[in-house]
Amino acid sequence: VVALRVLCVVKTLSTMMSSRPLSLLLALLLITPSCSFHSVSLKSQTEAKPTTTSLWIMGESQDVNVNESTSNRRSVLTKSLAAAGISMFAPIANAEEQENDSLTPVYFGTGCFWHIQREFVEAERRILGRKDEDLTSRTGYAGGTKADGKGRVCYHNLLGAGDYGKMGHGEVVGMTIPDSKISDFAKVYFSLFNPKTGDRVDPGDKGGEYRYLLGLPGGDKHPRFGEVEAAATAGGKRLVAGRGGDPDTYRQGIVYYYDTAKFPFYPAEIYHQFHNDFQSPPYGKKYNDLADLEFANGGFIKETGCPEGF
Question: How many Å apart are CA 246 and CA 13, to the nearest integer?
Answer without folding.
Answer: 51
